[in-house]
Specification:
Keywords: Signal
Protein name: Polysaccharide deacetylase family protein
CATH architecture: Alpha-Beta Barrel
Pfam families: Polysacc_deac_1
Number of domains: 1
Number of strands: 10
Strand content: 5-15%
InterPro entries: Glyco_hydro/deAcase_b/a-brl, NODB_dom, Polysacch_Deacetylase
Structural class: alpha/beta
Organism: Advenella mandrilli
């Protein structure tokens, strides 16, 4: 009997796994609960290559997900890596390559050694701005160790995580994003001997100029921060939908994935969430205009 192909593949989006509270952060306890729930419910965590094949029409297990992490924070190595290893899960790390430094491996959770500080997202941004990204980002040695263990595979999130559209004219924007992507490709090739077609847009922003610059450098699979759609066989590889995972136990994640995969409730849920987001944004604009 032929294996039943996945109707759609939810792509999960994480940033931080750390005891430090704050935005876009999942606690180590909830992250382990989520990975345990995926394993207990028979989910397969795809590699980036398997996901790319699925988009081109190849078959993957019916209950498949792609687990992704943005930026490359140290806490991904300290806390997420051992949990992924424990449950046999594979994840994708979209790394800001300029943040990755050199140095020895640092301790991970469960090693019995004192763990490095893994601060909140706000603190991480301040530390990066102060030129000390090595304190809060993964090192190349740690990246290599995770790839060797099969817990994380590394792909491009640009070199500097700069929004070139905000402070530059069009010529400056085009030159900036092209150079940023080129430097990231060079770093991944030098440190990991990797030439990847997978690219995650910083802050989810992209436009036609961004896409053209990326395609010129060989990128072809683009990840957004938009949750309101389905990743299906034969779908558009230039617009990968991702679900932002909340700091909740595994039962929540299984429920959320169930909605995302449901051909009836999924579209209704997406339209409702998108409507609420648009209303919230309209209220914010009105408040700003009347302030």
């Amino acid at each position: 009997m032929a294996e039943k192909n996945a109707r759609s593949v939810p792509v999960l989006m994480y940033h931080h796994i750390t005891p430090s509270s704050g935005q876009i952060t999942t606690s180590p306890q909830n992250f382990e609960s989520q990975m345990a729930a995926l394993a207990a419910n028979g989910y397969t965590s795809l590699t980036a290559g398997q996901f790319a094949g699925y988009l081109q029409g190849e078959t993957v297990p019916e209950k498949s997900v792609l687990i992704t992490f943005d930026d490359g924070y140290l806490d991904n190595y300290v806390y997420a890596h051992p949990v992924l290893q424990k449950y046999g899960m594979n994840a994708v790390m979209f790394l800001v390559t300029d943040w990755a430094g050199q140095g020895e491996l640092r301790p991970v959770d469960g090693s019995g050694k004192p763990l490095p500080a893994c601060p909140s997202h706000h603190e991480c941004k301040e530390i990066v701005a102060a030129g000390k990204a090595n304190d809060i980002a993964v090192r190349w040695s740690e990246v290599q160790a995770m790839e060797a263990a099969g817990t994380f595979e590394i792909h491009c999130h640009t070199h500097t995580h700069t929004r070139w559209d905000l402070n530059f004219d069009r010529a400056g924007k085009c030159a900036g994003i092209a150079n940023d992507l080129q430097q990231s490709k060079a770093a991944l090739l030098q440190e990991l001997n990797k030439n990847s077609p997978h690219l995650c847009w910083p802050q989810g922003y992209f436009d036609d100029d961004y896409i053209q610059a990326a395609q010129a450098l060989g990128f072809s699979i683009f990840y957004t921060t938009d949750a309101y759609g389905f990743n299906v066989a034969g779908g558009n590889p230039q617009y990968i939908y991702r679900i932002a995972v909340r700091n909740k136990p595994g039962a929540w994640l299984i429920h959320r994935i169930g909605i995302a995969k449901n051909p009836y409730w999924g579209p209704l849920y997406n339209r409702w969430k998108k409507f609420r987001k648009q209303r919230r944004r309209a209220r914010e604009i009105r408040r700003a205009n009347t302030a």
